[in-house]
Specification:
It comes from Martelella mediterranea. By secondary structure, the protein is of the alpha/beta class. The chain contains eleven helices and 14 strands.
């Protein structure tokens, strides 16, 4: 089969190789998926740059965890009725060497849930990391109905879904965005108040917009960089659910200030979500897709062989939405 692989860490153009490798076989409890699409996420580019230093210890890696396609074969213990099923994938390259940047992937059956007919394969590739991370951020600490939820970076891949999950569940959603296009995207997703996070006084703007009411939950894309301002707008007993801290990688915590607010800080990564949380996220995603309740942002569609360019797009940090590799015509 055709696939992308890397045998050493480094820049995308230097280490990503497009070529032929052996087609995988579905083992016990696994399904073999003929992939149509594969998504590039920031965690994929970070792995390529050695965020997991031992990743290559057992040989080359096929990158990417998210994708979508059709089950072509099943391993022992998996019902043959799954053959022919449209699926999306998650955690394909977590704790495993071989991900979705290929014509085929073999992975645990539970990590290839059914993709409703209402969603195409491009949408299917958006769901694993972005939509499931957002789901966990919004719901890990209980229902949000009637609460005020702040989503920082609301036009980003995770933030865009977080706005929708919260708004669909009855929360008042505030989002931060730095330009008119992103503000429009947040508003269309369900945010009722938009704040420009590049404004040094954005906490004051937020509180002015709410009449002084603070927020109950914060879904945060830049925990360390935002923490000082976040604490100005979060209510006592509030929750910060964060999935990234890229600008300030090792933030220092103002412990007493946070303790006196009885703040909960929840760190989230989709790879390590509890199995029950994964199952609930998958179920809610499927229901929302069937009812047409989720919007999706796809920034780029590129052929598999252009994987290095797709990685550069993600690393550049300027794209809003998912970068998807198409595989069917390889």
């Amino acid at each position: 089969m055709k696939a992308i692989r890397f045998e050493k860490f480094g820049p995308a153009d230097d280490v990503l190789i497009f070529g032929d490798i052996e087609k995988p076989v579905a083992g016990p409890g696994e399904v073999l998926v003929r992939l149509k699409t594969s998504a590039v996420n920031p965690s994929d580019t970070k792995k390529r740059m050695a965020s997991f230093p031992d990743l290559l210890d057992n040989g080359y890696v096929i990158p990417h965890s998210d994708g979508a396609g059709i089950i072509e074969a099943v391993g022992g213990g998996v019902p043959e009725a799954r053959i022919g099923e449209r699926v999306f994938t998650f955690n394909a390259q977590y704790g495993r060497r071989f991900g979705t940047a290929a014509e085929y992937v073999a992975l645990p059956s539970a990590h290839a849930p059914c993709l409703p007919e209402a969603a195409d394969f491009e949408v299917g590739a958006c769901l694993g990391i972005p939509a499931m991370t957002a789901h966990r951020c919004v719901f890990a600490d209980g229902a949000v109905d009637g609460q005020t939820v702040l989503v920082t970076g609301g036009a980003g891949r995770v933030g865009f879904y977080a706005i929708q999950w919260a708004a669909l569940s009855g929360a008042r959603v505030i989002a931060t965005a730095s330009n008119d296009a992103d503000a429009d995207a947040c508003r269309n997703a369900g945010a009722s108040i938009i704040i420009n996070h590049r404004d040094e006084n954005w906490p004051e703007s937020l509180l002015a917009a709410t009449g002084g009411e603070k927020v109950n939950r914060v879904i945060d894309v830049e925990f360390g960089a935002n923490l000082e301002n976040t604490l100005k707008v979060i209510e006592t007993n509030g929750v910060i659910a964060t999935y990234s801290s890229t600008v300030v990688k090792e933030p220092q915590l103002p412990f007493l200030k946070m303790m006196y607010l009885d703040i909960t800080v929840r760190m989230i990564i989709v790879y390590a979500m509890p199995e029950a949380a994964k199952a609930q996220a998958v179920s809610d995603i499927q229901d929302a897709l069937e009812m047409g309740r989720l919007q999706h942002r796809i920034a780029r569609l590129m052929p598999l062989e252009d994987c290095a360019a797709a990685h550069r797009e993600i690393e550049g940090g300027k794209v809003r939405g998912s970068v998807i590799l198409t595989i069917d015509k390889v």
